[in-house]
Amino acid sequence: MHSIPIFIKPKSGRFLNNLRACIRLNGLAYSTEKTYVYWVRFFIRFHNKRHPEEMGEAEVSAFLSYMALERNVSPATQRTALNSLVFLYRKFFGRKEFNLEFRYAKPSKRLPTVFSHNEALQVIDRLSGKYQLMARLLYGSGLRVMECCRLRVQDIDFEQKQLIIRESKGVKYRQTLLPESLVEPLQRMLKKTKAIHEQDLAQGYGKVYLPYALERKYPSAHTLFAWQYVFPASQVSVDPRGDEIRRHHLHETTIQRKVRVAIRQTEINKHASTHTFRHSFATRLLENGYDIRTIQTLLGHADVKTTQIYPHAVKRGGLGVISPIDGSLSG
Questions:
Q1: Does residue 195 surpass a pLDDT of 70?
Q2: Domain limits at 156?
Q3: Residue 3: its pLDDT value, please?
Q4: The whole model's pTM is what?
Q5: Residue 323 lies in a domain
Q6: Between residues 238 and 73, which one has the greater pLDDT?
Q7: Chain segment 141-170, per-residue pLDDT in tens
């Protein structure tokens, strides 16, 4: 249950618990909370476990420069560390003036790894059952792996042929397409999910985790089938925030591991993963003539610049240049 926020005792005296509470008050996603806490811990260890309140701009600048010069991290990684520490000092400690001078990480122009359509189908064909269905959703709807794992029954709109993506990156909601070919497989999956849920209810369980205090607002909602995860875990487990026994969603590492094995079986020599299906989804749409703004909306990118990595992936190798050896030979 790594996607469920850990319980924090009210008025906790621990620094990191108070930081977590501040992050939640600011409405940030739990994944962001874990990231921020990770980098704050890293920052504290880097400065020999000094308390962050005793430090400031100089120490943060030194840490960020170290990340770029000594660890050779990517600009994205350095930016994540920067965001974490800026939140710590501006939001948590309330330091409005916080000016930094540090060495920026060198940007690298790395294109996303993309499957060809045939490669994507080869990987999918080597999966079976719910894992194959999940991979088809990743490729067919452009989902992130956690979005697929967290999909709930009520998020599937069969009539409108769309999926509602909740609890997404940045706590944004969006809609994306539901492929026609996945309607029947999903309906069959829901029958299995309902049978599991009814069995849980009969055994005194069946209360799924609800985010954002919805459990208090709608006391009986957690037992409704509509709120259950489409891809439930194989076993019930104890909620880490209390003693409630629940059936959470399938853990993302399970499908990631299955896809890695499938990729090895195909002998596709690419640095690929579950996320490659999402890249491939965007690339196929561009190849089929859909505009970049439509693709941005379906992927849930806040900034179109993030989506603009895909036009480069559409080009043929060698910037689209046809080699002389592939042209007509004369004389």
A1: yes
A2: 110-317
A3: 61
A4: 0.76
A5: no
A6: 73
A7: 999 999 999 999 999 999 999 999 986 555
C-alpha–C-alpha distance, residues 296 and 275, integer Å: 16
DSSP string of 223-261, one letter each residue: GSGGGSBSSB-SS-EE-TTSS-EE--BPPHHHHHHHHHH
Tokens of 245: 């026994």
Q: Which residues are catalytic?
A: 144, 169, 275, 278, 301, 310
259, 134: one domain: yes
CB contact burial 254-264 (16+ within 10 A = b; e otherwise): bbeebbeebbe
Task: In whole angstroms, give the CA distance from residue 329 to residue 313.
Answer: 29
Task: Check which CATH number belongs to the domain holding 37 and give it.
Answer: 1.10.150.130
Mean pLDDT of 27-45: 91
Q: Are residues 130 and 269 in the same domain?
A: yes
User: Is the dihedral angle over the CA atoms 101, 106, 109, 114 positive or is it negative?
Assistant: negative
CA distance 289 to 131: 30
Determine the Cα–Cα distance for residues 39 and 85; give it in Å rounded to an integer: 8
Longest dimension (CA), the chain: 86
Q: What's the pLDDT tens digit per position in 251-283? A: 999 999 999 999 999 989 999 999 999 999 988
CA 136, distance to chain mean position in Å, is 17
User: Taking a C-beta distance cutoff of 8 angstroms, is the pair 197, 206 a contact?
Assistant: yes
Instruction: Give the rounded distance of the alpha carbon of 16 from its chain centre.
Output: 24
